[in-house]
């Protein structure tokens, strides 16, 4: 372990982890990190074994069987891997087959079968994609998400919206509107996903102006077929796989997330290349040179030694809000555990919070600055924006407005972030900043993969199984019979 006085780790790609406000006197100290050296080395060795063999000590599937953890293989496109050249070809062929043909896609899914898909959509499409013309969307379909809750109003309004579009389309183009429904469920029968799918399918399947195509994304296991797989076979729906050994919260790098990429013309290969580049950096033995191991170590120490067990992920970019929402699941399901791997009750975990800059400076920051001293504020910053308007001098007689004219919006955003970080640390409020060089597929792959592998490292440091989620079974045991009772009535 090199002893450093550095304040940031900068990768060759430009991705930066600035930990100045997290490490030092009154913060996590270098001595703290040094004292953890053995654990850090063990964590690094364990994750190297996971990379090579998929084996993680103590990890069992829901059925109590030993299960491999294979997400770290996903960035590498290789014949023997889950993301083989054939899978990438299949995704590209799928993309070409819907371009200029399918008018709208509804992607049904929840949790790991939704959150990553929304991230790719937001980064590539932004907020206004569905209002653009076909030409502006480069021939790719409009895209909607459903199944992420069981909300009667939203689902009904989605149906009405599709009906309205189809009617208008038929009037102008004189042909049927092509609607694709992509149903994503690893287990193949999740209530939220399937109830929305059935409601929307029933409402639209005999619509005079709509042709429907259905694609299923589910566990491909032939011996224990999921309900969705059986339906796909019976109805001849094309299928994609939720690969074995890839949990929902890591599935953005697999066919689950990449199918959304294929629907919108997102650069899948650049995304995986970014993840691969990050995985390579995250294999470095020296913790100060390994962004994920360093991130995991500092957050672990901040929580265990200094009581900072809430992590606010606060990107300064509207379209990264869904990245924060994706991270909620990753952190909460992976590390929020009652038992450690020796069966001891530890009630481990850091609570994740979504925030967005500058929005939440006008809402949450009061609490971050003066509330309980139990948080790490993790900022995400974009270094270079593709579009970056200069604030015009619209009202020269208003001095306050003239003062902010002539500067770029990104400069104002950066000043806001830096001011927030400085104010927080002035009162020992731990914070750190990840900088993405640009908001594109490659750097998004880097960022998300770094967060994912960081969770794997922290699981080792805390000695909890980061790859199961037994806690979500508790409510399911209550909900199942309650739903059955409704049916009987
Ligand atoms: O992380 C997980 O495994 C869960 O959040 C699942 O992704 C979520 O429950 C959806 O499950 P499924 O894909 O089986 O429908």
In brief, what are we looking at here?
Helix content is 44%, strand content 15%. With 489 residues, the protein is an alpha/beta fold. It has 2 domains: 8-62 and 285-463, Glucose-6-phosphate isomerase like protein, domain 1 (Rossmann fold), CATH 3.40.50; 100-264, Glucose-6-phosphate isomerase like protein, domain 1 (Rossmann fold, 3-Layer(aba) Sandwich), CATH 3.40.50.
How would you sum up this structure, described in words?
GO terms for molecular function: carbohydrate derivative binding; glucose-6-phosphate isomerase activity; monosaccharide binding. Its EC number is 5.3.1.9. It comes from Selenobaculum gibii. The chain has 489 residues and is an alpha/beta fold. It folds into two domains: 234 residues, 3-Layer(aba) Sandwich (Rossmann fold); 165 residues, 3-Layer(aba) Sandwich (Rossmann fold), CATH 3.40.50. The chain is built from 16 helices and 13 strands. The strands form three sheets. A six-stranded mixed β-sheet has the order 1-2-13-12-8-11, with helices on both faces. It has a five-stranded parallel β-sheet with strand order 4-3-5-6-7, with helices on both faces. Helix 4 links the parallel strand 3 and strand 4. Helix 4 packs parallel to helix 8, helix 5 runs parallel beside helix 6 and helix 10 crosses helix 15. The longest helix is centred in the first third of the chain and has 22 residues. The model has no long low-confidence stretch (mean pLDDT 95).
């Amino acid at each position: 372990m090199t002893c450093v006085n550095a304040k940031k780790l900068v990768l060759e790609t430009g991705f930066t982890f600035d930990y100045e406000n997290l490490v030092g006197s009154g913060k996590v100290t270098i001595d703290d990190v040094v004292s953890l050296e053995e654990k850090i080395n063990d964590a690094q060795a364990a994750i190297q074994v996971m990379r090579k063999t998929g084996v993680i000590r103590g990890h069992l599937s829901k059925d109590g069987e030993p299960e491999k953890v294979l997400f770290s293989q996903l960035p590498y496109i290789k014949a023997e891997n889950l993301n083989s050249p054939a899978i990438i070809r299949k995704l590209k062929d799928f993309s070409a087959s819907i371009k200029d043909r399918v008018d709208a896609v509804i992607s049904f899914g929840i949790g790991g079968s939704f959150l990553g898909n929304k991230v790719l959509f937001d980064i590539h499409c932004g907020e206004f994609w569905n209002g653009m013309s076909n030409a502006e969307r480069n021939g790719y379909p409009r895209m909607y998400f459903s199944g992420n809750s069981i909300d009667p109003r939203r689902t009904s309004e989605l149906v009405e919206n599709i009906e309205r579009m189809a009617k208008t389309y038929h009037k102008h183009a004189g042909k049927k509107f092509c609607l694709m429904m992509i149903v994503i469920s690893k287990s193949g029968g999740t209530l939220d996903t399937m109830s929305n799918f059935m409601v929307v399918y029933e409402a639209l399947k005999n619509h005079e102006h709509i042709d429907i195509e259905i694609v299923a994304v589910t566990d491909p296991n032939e011996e224990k077929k999921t309900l969705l797989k059986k339906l796909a076979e019976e109805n001849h729906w094309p299928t994609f796989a939720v690969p074995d050994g890839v949990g929902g919260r890591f599935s953005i790098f697999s066919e689950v997330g990449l199918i959304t990429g294929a629907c919108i013309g997102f650069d899948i290969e650049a995304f995986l290349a970014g993840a691969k580049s990050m995985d390579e950096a995250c294999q470095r033995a020296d913790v100060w040179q390994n962004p994920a191991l360093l991130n995991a170590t500092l957050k672990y120490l901040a929580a265990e030694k200094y009581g900072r067990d809430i992590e606010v992920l606060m990107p300064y970019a509207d379209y990264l809000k869904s990245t924060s929402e994706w991270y909620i699941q990753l952190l909460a399901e992976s590390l929020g555990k009652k038992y450690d791997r020796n069966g001891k009750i530890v009630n481990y975990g850091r609570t994740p919070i979504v925030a967005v800059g500058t929005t939440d400076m006008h809402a949450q920051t009061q609490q971050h600055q003066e509330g309980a001293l139990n948080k790490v504020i993790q900022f995400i910053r974009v270094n270079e924006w593709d579009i970056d308007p200069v604030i015009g001098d619209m009202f020269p007689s208003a001095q306050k407005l003239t003062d902010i004219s002539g500067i770029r919006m990104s400069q104002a955003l950066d000043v806001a972030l830096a001011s927030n970080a400085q104010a927080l640390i002035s009162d020992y409020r731990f914070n750190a900043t990840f900088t993405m060089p640009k908001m594109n597929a490659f750097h998004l792959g880097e960022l998300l993969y770094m967060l994912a592998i960081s969770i794997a490292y922290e699981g080792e440091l805390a000695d909890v199984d980061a790859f199961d989620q037994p806690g979500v079974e508790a409510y399911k045991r209550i909900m199942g019979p309650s739903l059955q009772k409704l049916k009987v009535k």
